[in-house]
Write a structure and sequence with these properties.
Elements: E1 7-20, E2 23-36, E3 40-44, H1 51-59, E4 66-75, E5 78-79, H2 85-89, E6 96-99, H3 103-106, H4 113-147, H5 154-203, H6 210-224, H7 234-247, H8 254-277, H9 284-294, H10 304-354, H11 362-378, H12 391-431, H13 448-471, H14 477-496, H15 501-514, H16 520-523, H17 533-545, E7 551-555, H18 563-580, E8 583-588, H19 591-594, E9 600-605, E10 608-614, H20 615-620, H21 625-632, E11 681-684, E12 687-689, H22 705-722
Helix pairs in contact: 4-5, 4-10, 4-14, 4-15, 5-6, 5-8, 5-9, 5-14, 6-7, 7-8, 9-10, 10-11, 10-13, 10-14, 11-12, 12-13, 15-17, 17-18
Length: about 725
């Protein structure tokens, strides 16, 4: 994977178990992976391999008996395993959404689907608008504060403050204009959808409320009558006037119905032409400046592209280019402070690492660690808008590991006491001849040396990061200044987007249309049981997309569907990913499902990732015997031989195997596979596999003949498709 690509999510050494009456089930065992922007990462494996547990940990919806025993999940500068439920509420469903296997488990059977689509939209929007305005104001205030740092010239201080006030002033205008445009656009779309429904009914010779149609159409056209959306709507108004007479007829004849239909079609065609002509959106950011500080009237223009160029030139020459220089100055100050604080943090961290942790007073060590955390947090660039720095999450890791390390003896003693008590009770009851339905939960023993190793690994990682950071900044100040302006614009747009009940309804109908549901206006009021399985899954996808998430997790979304519908849903998810620039984690047990949609594939078995690579790596150059087995059992139109099944069953994860968990089912297993877990061997920069077959001293094992033939056929098919 290209390291320059923006990383959206990082899972690091995640370990999860579940308490059961028979003992602790080790569901996920130290897995790590990254998810990049606009990437589809498919996690493949048999049932019980830990795929769904991983996805639920990311979303913070693990079962109550789950125990997160280690690891981190980083998103937007936060460790999702450490944040509060209130913080998670801002992320779950909003930034990270999920599509589940069974759509009926996600839908309320006694609530109309339209209501289920709109309800969350309105609540989330209120919170998002508050958060967006808060972020906008915070960054603007921080910029002014940095510019005025150590400045004694009152005029310069006043100018910096005035520029920020002016920026905020035309941003308010920007919000008004964009909000007005969006309302008019919504009205246009709503009328378009409504008229399509009327046309459909009239063509089917169904009853239509003529009066309502005329009133509703006029009402919407008045909303559309906005100089920033549809400057010339007199034609539309004339068309409505022309059909008013038909609304007075109580029992229209077939000719009158035909005339009414013709007029409705004309109006709808006019709406379509307006939408087509207005595909280029106004630059409301520049427009806000122009109408606030240049003129109350727009300059004459022929096309929106032409107007946008004029507006942008005015904004750049009279304000923005100078303001970007000011932001660059603020960035320089912020960088210098970050650089100096990073040096102090690095020095303090090295000193802390050099201490003998076992022979230092615990209170003193914790005090020094707290000071290091404070210094590392102060090393973060104050104008950082991409919260990807590990400095944000260092506090979580260190505090937790230190608390565990210094309390490990008492925790182990407490756990032993609990185990001895339960075992004594169990043995006593058995001795009395009692038949028990429960067993003693095995004793959990925390290893002090392992915790210490994890702690010092965190130190080493942060030291390397700070050393690299201190060497220099990878991006120019101008690029970062433009990013900050874009951040302001994005947050302003978020503030402008107000979701009312009507807006939510229109948005829901458009979402239903986007996911391929016909006649969305009519089906909006239907219940889940009135939809087929495939259509219910489309509704669930629409609900997941309602908050415009950053990451979409698909947990076996096609398992309950037939093959034809499966293909349609997969095509829909791929289309939505491209159109909405989504990052996707797709979970499945079927390699065939992911063949045409995965950018990278992680193969999981018994709670561990045993192979990870690009789609080409996994399908054309698989290295782990378990991956071979999955590929060999995949249905293929051209395969004449009987498909191979994977022998045996997955191991009991209460007592996971000592070595490679797949060894007992692997006909290529060696003695070492039963004794020691293999590390991740590097195959290429994008491809890694945990199998002893990749060790330099291992015997050379060829791919199974049937799999080689299958790979060759896949390559030939790709060549043919490319012609």
């Amino acid at each position: 994977m290209d390291n320059k690509k923006e990383k959206k999510l990082k899972v690091d050494n995640l370990t999860i178990s579940f308490r059961t009456v028979n003992g602790n089930v080790q569901a996920v065992r130290g897995i790590s992976f990254d998810l990049y922007k606009e990437e589809t990462l498919c996690i493949v494996g048999e049932s019980g391999s830990g795929k769904s547990v991983t996805s639920r940990a990311i979303l913070g919806i693990l079962a109550k008996n789950a125990m997160i025993q280690g690891g981190k999940i980083f998103y937007d500068g936060k460790d999702l395993l450490k944040i509060s439920e209130d913080e998670f509420h801002k992320i779950r469903g909003d930034k990270i959404a999920m599509i589940f296997q069974d759509p009926m488990s996600s839908l309320n059977p006694i609530m109309r689907v339209g209501k289920q689509l709109t309800e969350a939209m309105i609540l989330k929007n209120r919170a998002n608008r508050r958060e967006a305005r808060k972020s906008f104001n915070k960054l603007l205030a921080k910029t002014v504060e940095l510019l005025n740092l150590n400045v004694t010239d009152k005029n310069e201080i006043d100018n910096n403050k005035k520029d920020a006030e002016n920026f905020n002033k035309f941003e308010v205008k920007h919000l008004e204009l964009e909000s007005s445009y969006d309302r008019a656009s919504e009205a246009c779309d709503d009328l378009n959808l409504y008229l399509k429904d009327v046309i459909f009914k009239l063509e089917k010779k169904a009853a239509v409320n003529f009066k309502r149609t005329v009133v509703y159409t006029k009402e919407k056209i008045l909303q559309i009558k906005d100089e920033y959306y549809c400057p010339d709507n007199t034609k539309l108004v004339d068309l409505v006037t022309g059909i008013k007479e038909y609304s007075k007829v109580k029992k229209p004849s077939e000719e009158q119905n035909k005339a009414f239909l013709d007029e409705i079609i004309k109006i709808n065609n006019e709406l379509e032409s307006i939408k087509e002509a207005n595909t280029v959106k106004f630059n409301f950011f520049a427009l806000g400046y122009y109408l606030t500080f240049v003129s109350e009237q727009l300059p004459p223009y022929k096309t929106r592209e032409e107007l946008n160029k004029v507006l942008r030139k005015e904004l750049d020459n009279k304000f923005m280019l100078d303001y970007i220089k000011k932001i660059e100055k603020a960035l320089t100050i912020s960088n210098e402070r970050s650089y100096a604080n990073s040096k102090l943090a690095l020095e303090a961290l090295r000193s802390l690492k050099a201490l003998d942790i076992d022979n230092t007073n615990i209170k003193e060590y914790k005090r020094l660690a707290k000071d290091v955390v404070k210094k590392i947090l102060s090393s973060i660039d104050e104008l950082d808008i991409y919260r990807t720095s590990p400095c944000y999450t260092f506090k979580y890791s260190i505090v937790d590991n230190l608390n565990l390390y210094f309390s490990i003896d008492s925790k182990n003693a407490k756990e032993k006491k609990r185990y001895d008590k339960e075992k004594a009770k169990h043995d006593n009851l058995v001795a009395k001849g009692k038949t028990l339905t429960w067993s003693v939960v095995p004793q959990t023993v925390w290893n002090k040396e392992e915790i210490k190793k994890e702690l010092f690994s965190e130190y080493d990682y942060m030291i390397k990061y700070l050393e690299k950071y201190i060497k220099g900044f990878e991006r120019s100040l101008n690029d970062r200044a433009v990013d900050i302006i874009d951040f302001f614009k994005a947050k302003a747009s978020d503030v402008a987007t107000k979701v009312t009940k009507e807006v939510a309804r229109n948005k829901a109908i458009k979402l239903m249309e986007e996911v391929g549901i016909n006649e969305p206006r009519r089906r909006f009021r239907q219940y889940p049981f009135e939809f087929s399985g495939g259509m219910r899954q489309r509704i669930v996808i629409a609900i997941a997309l309602a908050a415009n998430p950053d990451i979409l997790i698909c947990d076996e979304p096609t398992t309950a569907l037939d093959v034809t519908i499966q293909s349609q849903i997969l095509e829909l998810i791929t289309k939505l990913k491209k159109e909405r620039h989504l990052s996707i984690i797709f979970i499945t047990h079927d390699m065939g499902v992911v063949a045409n949609m995965a950018d990278r594939i992680a193969v999981m078995y018994a709670g561990k990732i045993v192979e990870i690579g690009t789609s080409q790596d996994i399908f054309y150059n698989p290295k782990h015997p378990y991956t071979w087995a999955l590929l060999s059992s995949m249905p293929d139109l051209d395969t004449k031989e009987k498909l191979e099944s994977i022998p045996g069953t997955p191991p009991n994860m209460i007592y996971p195997p000592k070595g490679d968990a797949f060894a007992a089912r692997n006909k290529y297993a060696m003695k070492i596979d039963f004794e020691m877990q293999p590390p991740m061997f590097k195959v290429s920069d994008t491809h890694y596999a945990a199998t002893w077959l990749l060790h330099p001293d291992a015997p050379k094992v060829s791919l199974p003949t049937t799999l080689v033939e299958r790979i060759n056929r896949m390559k030939e098919r790709v060549k043919e498709d490319a012609k």
